[in-house]
Amino acid sequence: MTTKQELSLETVIQKALGYDPKDIDPLLKYLDLDKSELRPSKTSTENDARTIASHLRKMGSNDFATLLRGGDGVPYSEVVYDVGKKLKVPGIAEGPASANEKKIIEKLFADALDKMTEEERRQLMASIGISSKDIPFGSSGLIITQLLLKEFGGFAVYKSTLIVANLISRALLGSGLSFATNAAITRTIGAALGPIGWIVSGAWLAVDLAGPAYRKTVPAVIHVAMLRQIVQNRVVVGVVGEGSVGKDALLKSVFSIDTDNVSPVSGSTSETEIYNWDPAGKGNPTDMARIVNFPGFNDTNHEVNEQTTDHLNHADVFLMVVDITRGITDVEVKSLKRLANLGRPILVCLNKIDLPRPGDKEDLVAAARARLQGENVSMIETAFDPDPRLHNGNPIGVLEVGRWVIDQLKRSGKDL
Question: What sections of 256-388 are H helices per DSSP?
């Protein structure tokens, strides 16, 4: 599996904003950053992400001259390192922010376990889906945490980060996390939001945070660490294509999403449709896996185009559907180049492959492949809703498309 690339502070915040701006509210409260200082936009999250990131880096700067000059503060990796030193995190060292975030979470999660009884530890582990006779529940929190990380890897990092961020929010803001991400958190950490969470949350109030800067940067870094884990574990598949090429049929046959019956996610527009997906195939669509059905890229409405651009930045992979019977248009060639510039894997579905006459099919496919070449571009012949008069079998290429999506997501480090 490919190692996950380090996401910048701005990217983590922007992707979180793109999912739901409310996910950022606790971070704004920790930093005492009023929303009026942002430039809210329905179509772009880049400016707000840059403003929030700059504010956090300034809070992490010990150079008051930098603050007075209005500079951009210190690198975020330095802020995280400074927080780690303040919390006396074992093994903290200068380096990537994500690595030190994990060390901070490990230390704080171990501290939380030390506040619990053995029975409470057992309940907590059971609530997050970890039940093992080999876990030494009577040992120190640090030993248990290290064992969990060794046995469960990224799974344990993800869930422990959610737990710690929730406890910090409960202790400092008076309530646990209760925003868009809460749906995923509730399913993920179960009892940690209940009585067990209340038992240990008071411990965070005793943390010695000398000086106002640490009272801002410590919880802010923990919240960013949580957002990073959620962003890295969230799956977003973008579906693009011009009108009447078969996008709805793809959604139904590949992802079991019926666009006539499934309501778009709250807050989305009629132009860009966002659906929850069930990658495990267990009949339980999750808000951690999204399918985004994009409109055409050249809408006459400027706001629609801006919104499309912003959503494109959050997709992990793209499925581009073209109608092989119509030939490849210049608009589709330009659209593919636009997607390719984002650097994400692209699968072009040469759809309605059941319709051309045998003598024409090879020529149409060859012409499409010639016009739609590009780096990270793959192609599959498909017929998501074949004409029963011409094709008596099942839809064509559905399993291949599904396997390509899963394979690309795993290559990018997504835990499916």
Answer: 302-312, 330-340, 358-371
pTM over 0.85: no
The whole-angstrom separation of Cα 414 and Cα 161 is: 17
Which whole-number Å values give the CA distances from 37 to 8, 220, 257, in the listed order?
22, 18, 39
Residues pairing with 275 in the sheet: 291
H or E stretch at 237: strand 235-240
Using CA atoms, how far apart are residues 8 and 266, in angstroms rounded to an integer?
28
User: Going edge to edge, which strands form the sheet with 273-277?
Assistant: 273-277, 286-293, 235-240, 317-323, 346-351, 377-381
**Rounded alpha-carbon distances, angstroms, from residue 13 to 38, 194, 271, 310, 353:** 13, 28, 24, 13, 42
Angle separating helix axes 212-233 and 154-173, nearest 10 degrees: 140
Residue 16 pLDDT level (bands cut at 50, 70, 90): confident
The structure tokens 């008051």 sit at: 64
Q: pLDDT by residue (tens digit) across 235-278?
A: 889 999 988 899 999 999 999 988 874 445 543 335 678 888 88
Neighbours of 190 (CB within 10 A): 19
User: Which residues fall within 8 angstroms of residue 99, CB to CB, at 6 or more apart?
Assistant: none
Query: Residue 179 has what DSSP assignment?
Result: S
Helix (H) or strand (E) holding 147: helix 141-152
Cα angle 226-232-238, degrees, rounded to a multiple of 5: 130
With beta carbons less than 8 A apart as the criterion, state whether 194 and 63 touch. Answer: no
HSE of 275 in the Cβ direction (CA atoms, 13 Å)? 23
Residue at token pair 């629609």: 304
